[in-house]
């Protein structure tokens, strides 16, 4: 496996300065955003699609440094029923087109989350159903069968036309695909082009075991994020794993995203990557640095050092 970097964490730096910073840190792969919730600080997607010169300059900047694009990332909610969903659909189409121009074979994104009925105006993350009353189950069936599966069937067909070979869906909360079971529900319906971007941090705060998840996923692991989470002593014991406080309120949350090694120790990370590699994944691991308990610089530096010690070759 090889170390790459989700470049939004260095979004304050211009593109080539960002690449030089990563070279200093010994990172040779980049996962760059093309839209969705990201402002795409390093990839002006529509400008690139309209200019062969800009595309060539982008590739030359990477090639001159011996760097590669690990994946394009367009994480958002294309199934939102409002204007946001229309924008994210458009961004996703542009990401496919740009991948075709750049020869990128993998798109990292999220499954999307629809409303609970055709009459709703906002998405609805349904995490609990019982046999009676049947309302929530009917809503969940609507989300899958009437919205998500038809959308993804069309998206997979368009991706093949662009030369994209893999979608890697992040197992993120408030998405229809948020764990291995939901990934397989979509994968079984639309084909094995769809797999998981295995992000252990989200599974951990949901109470799952990412190492067991890796074993269950096998060849459905299409990408991997190096991202850690810490259950905060005392607070999580009182309030449990569900957390609605903003991510900036780090001192009062039951759990926080932290630099790699500040949640799970390095022995845990060694076992995680060993099992991921054992299950057949031997591609990029992207550091996604979202630790708000320390400076960006400190979080990136310490995370890269931890990942270099634990990623399986």
Keywords summarizing the entry:
about 325 residues; alpha/beta; 11 helices; about 40% helix; globular
Question: Quick recap of the structure?
Answer:
By secondary structure, the chain is an alpha/beta fold. It is built from eleven helices and ten strands. An eight-stranded parallel β-barrel has the order 1-2-3-4-5-6-7-10, surrounded by four helices.
Determine the N-to-C terminus distance: 5 Å
Detail the poorly predicted runs.
none
Percent of residues in helices: 40-55%
The count of DSSP E runs of length 2 or more, i.e. the number of strands, is: 10
Largest sheet: 8 strands, parallel, barrel
Class inferred from helices and paired strands: alpha/beta
Overall pLDDT confidence: 96
Supply the number of helical segments.
11
Q: SSE string, helix = H, strand = E?
A: EHEHHEHEHEHEHHEEHEHEH
Shape: globular
Lateral strand order in the biggest sheet:
1-2-3-4-5-6-7-10
Strand content: 15-25%
Q: Please give the radius of gyration in angstroms.
A: 19 Å
What does this structure look like?
With 313 residues, this protein is an alpha/beta fold. Helix content is 42%, strand content 15%. The chain has 11 helices and 10 strands. The strands form 2 sheets. The chain has an 8-stranded parallel beta barrel with strand order 1-2-3-4-5-6-7-10, surrounded by 4 helices. Strands 8-9 form a two-stranded antiparallel sheet. The N and C termini lie close together (5 Å). The model has no long low-confidence stretch (mean pLDDT 96).
